[in-house]
Design goal:
The structure is a single chain. The protein is an alpha/beta fold. The protein is built from 12 helices and 12 strands. Strands 4, 5, 6, 7, 8, 9, 10, 11 and 12 form a 9-stranded mixed β-sheet that branches.
């Protein structure tokens, strides 16, 4: 089997937010082969990500054997090294890598979860991310809930944040998991202070309180906060996760499979984390791209709800009574009618 074309488009999602999450948002990558099989993956980077796929990556992949996924990943990384390593180039590679895995599953007539040694139909508990305590009251049944404080995470809003976290615990009750997402807007002192105040509310983790670049700050937090620290959503490649893992700067690692380099890199991150005794909880794990890995590789499976505006993804499994599972359809099990996809202008 040989690759005959590599294509990238940006479908428009209903109610997609009017910010970078759309302008630099998710792209659909399609890899065609001479066997008549097309693999699909989702990466990021908007128009810039599409350009990387359509030029550098397409030129490299035409005529190649799509089964050599690890080798092709290495070559794509090397081909974008001068302008890549992190960010948009790796987001583009992520979409291509996932499309290659989808092709592999379709070629072998197996779901990706089975390629990874897992079992289709495995039920995985879910947690819902909400942007306000009001949203939590209508979120439905889940094993846990995360309060995203991105809209009220300024340091001068300290008391409001603590009050909101307390109200979140009251709203969901004593049993479900409760997480807090600071979205990189706190500092060392405020994180230590807030962690101390919210400890009675049984917080599972505090997510991304500092910039991903502040490794020294995260080392201090791991030593001085009793609530576990989570992060890695905005990190790229397994090599960038290496210091986080070797220095145990995060208790919970949260790679985004559509951004961090694809499934090939997510597998490596799981392997390193297991050796270090750390937990992996992929960002937006309910979306099918990470869900197969969670079902196959995760000893503590927990999947975060996905982006509701990605309405153009067909075949995504539904959440029932706080649980989600992958199907036994080949590849990632998603269906796309490219002729009907609305595109971002």
């Amino acid at each position: 089997m040989q690759i005959t074309d590599v294509r990238a488009i940006q479908p428009a999602g209903k109610n997609s937010p009017p910010d970078w999450r759309t302008s630099m948002g998710q792209i659909l990558v399609a890899i065609d082969t001479d066997a008549g099989i097309t693999g699909y993956g989702v990466g990021g980077g908007g128009l810039a990500g599409q350009h990387v796929v359509r030029t550098v990556l397409r030129d490299l992949l035409l005529g190649r054997n799509p089964e050599q996924i690890s080798q092709l990943w290495h070559e794509m990384y090397q081909a974008t090294l001068a302008f890549g390593r992190k960010g948009i180039a790796i987001m583009a590679i992520s979409g291509v890598d996932l499309a290659l895995w989808d092709l592999q599953g379709k070629r072998e007539q197996l779901p990706v979860v089975a390629l990874l040694g897992g079992t289709p139909g495995t039920k995985i508990p879910t947690y819902h991310t909400a942007w306000s305590t009001e949203d939590l009251s209508t979120a439905g049944e889940h094993a846990g809930y995360k309060l995203h404080l991105g809209k009220i995470a300024a340091l001068e809003q300290h008391d409001l944040m603590v009050d909101s976290i307390e109200q979140a615990r009251i709203t969901i009750g004593p049993s479900p998991l409760l997480m807090v997402d600071a979205w990189m807007k706190w500092d060392i002192e405020s994180t230590i202070s807030i962690a101390r105040e919210i400890k009675p509310f049984q917080i599972e983790w505090i997510e991304e309180p500092l910039s991903p670049d502040d490794l020294a700050g995260y080392a201090i937090l791991e030593e001085k906060t009793e609530i576990p620290i989570a992060g890695g959503e905005h990190e790229f490649t397994s090599e960038a996760f290496r210091p986080l893992i070797e220095q145990k700067l995060h208790t919970v690692l949260q790679p985004d499979v559509n951004w961090c380099g694809g499934l090939t890199e997510l597998i490596k991150i799981y392997t390193m984390a297991k050796e270090a005794g750390l937990r992996v909880c992929p960002h937006r794990g309910c979306e099918i791209w990470a869900l197969h890995a969670i079902a196959a590789l995760d000893p503590q499976p927990l999947a975060e709800t996905g982006r509701p505006w990605m309405t153009w993804v067909e075949g995504q499994p539904d959440i029932h009574q706080g649980m989600i599972e992958v199907s036994d359809r080949p590849g990632f099990g998603l269906l796309f009618d490219e002729r009907r996809l609305p595109l971002v202008n």
